[in-house]
Amino acid sequence: IIDDPDMDIRIIQDRARTAAGYQDEGNQCVFYDNNLTEKVNREMKLDTLFDESIQNGDFKLYLQPKVSLETNEICGAEALVRWIHPEYGAIYPSDFIPLFERNGKICRLDIYMFEEVCKLVHQWKEEGRKLVPISVNLSRRNIGMGNFVQNYVEIKEKYDIPDSLIEFELTESLFFNTQQIQIVKQIIEEMHAHGFLCSLDDFGFGYSSLALLKEFDVDTIKLDRQFFLGDSDKMWKVVGKLISLAKELGIHIVAEGIETPEQLICLKENDCDMVQGYIYSKPLAALDFKKWFDTYGREK
Ligand code: C2E
Ligand code: MG
Ligand code: MG
User: Fold this and answer.
1) What is the rounded end-to-end Cα distance, in angstroms, of the chain?
2) I need a labelling partner for 13 at 20 to 30 A (CA). Which of 48, 124, 234, 257 fits?
3) pLDDT band (50, 70, 90) for residue 215
């Protein structure tokens, strides 16, 4: 909206272009405001720091445990990136993942994180530690990047990672485009053929569709934390039915973002398989996770 008709047309065009760059798929109309310029400047800064940070290892691997409700044992962990910049401190995924998704750098970050996970699993295997599956997030930008699975397979082989120890988390937004369904189906098949597991992340948030369960042969569904923000009877009925549907389909189910004992009780009553959330632990740096793993259950 042009508040000042005397403004230079080039500035007006520039602002319109900036706003258009932030249009997301569901949003046909976007408006410029001054906060956007600040955001653009901040993101430009982060963007220029990316290469050096990858080289210097400023992107750190954090792990958040998943606990089985049946056995009460740690049954897996999710790898989450933390950007610890020597000058700017800790930068959270919400500040940079959307940016790197837009400009495509996320693919390099994803494979970097995957390699970090493989290094760690390899090291733990050498130390004779008990291994649990680790899941890594995979941006939808990877889909359509040629034969990207092969790059992951090479790294898996380089570190001699046994099958079924790494899971890829694919977000539902991945499947926005129905034409991509066939491609994604093949990718999941290819991942399975190479000994990877697959999960559907953030299920139930945004554009989820039950039809996806019919289409995709995933091993696990992760129910999004948004699901558990309310505490109504209706919500628990929906959760309960989703859990039994997943079970009938032979799919495991993880409840994400669980914080309270009340939620845990309801999830147990509804026969949920696994829980990931602050109730057990926040995401931890790899060394802290190792300590947590070794002491978990002892104090009980
Ligand atoms: P996600 O994959 O759904 O990961 C779960 C997020 O929920 C994490 O946020 C985690 O810290 C947070 N969380 C877990 N338990 C709780 C809880 O009990 N309460 C609350 N309030 N939050 C909880 P985080 O680490 O900030 O990551 C945000 C998102 O960024 C992730 O959501 C994922 O989509 C993305 N992300 C993180 N690391 C990577 C990566 O290496 N590659 C890609 N492509 N995306 C990543
Ligand atoms: Mg995830
Ligand atoms: Mg999630």
Assistant:
1) 61
2) 48
3) confident
Under 8 Å between Cβ of 191 and 220: no
Query: Is residue 174's pLDDT more than 60?
Result: no
- Give me the phi and psi of 80, to 5 degrees please: -130, 135
Atom of ligand 1 nearest to the CA of 92: 26
How many angstroms separate the CA atoms of 131 and 164, rounded?
Answer: 11
**C-alpha 21 – ligand 3 centre gap (Å):** 26
Average pLDDT over every residue of 210-236: 88
Q: Is the CB of 65 under 6 A from ligand 1?
A: no
Give nearest CA residue, ligand 1 atom 37: 80
For 81-125, how does the pLDDT look when each residue is reduced to its tens digit (9 = 90+)? Answer: 999 999 999 999 999 999 999 899 999 999 999 999 999 999 999
CB contact at 8 A, 258 and 264: yes
Does ligand 1 lie within 6 Å of residue 167's CB atom?
A: no
Please give the Cα distance from 65 to 198 (Å, whole number): 17
CA of 82 to the centre of ligand 1 (A): 10
Helix axes 106-126, 93-103, angle to 10 degrees: 120
Nearest to 284 by CA among 108, 138, 140, 74: 74
Please state the φ and ψ torsions of residue 238, each to the nearest 5 degrees.
-60, -45
Q: Which among 299, 295, 283, 291 is positioned nearest to 134, based on CA atoms?
A: 283
What's the whole-number mean pLDDT along residues 235-251? 93
Are the C-beta atoms of 256 and 66 separated by less than 8 Å? no
Asked whether the beta carbons of 31 and 1 are under 8 A apart, the reply is yes
Using the mean position of ligand 1's atoms as its centre, give its distance from the Cα of residue 204 in Å. Answer: 15
Beta carbons of 170 and 138 less than 8 angstroms apart: yes
Q: What separation in Å is there between the alpha carbon of 39 and the centre of ligand 2?
A: 25
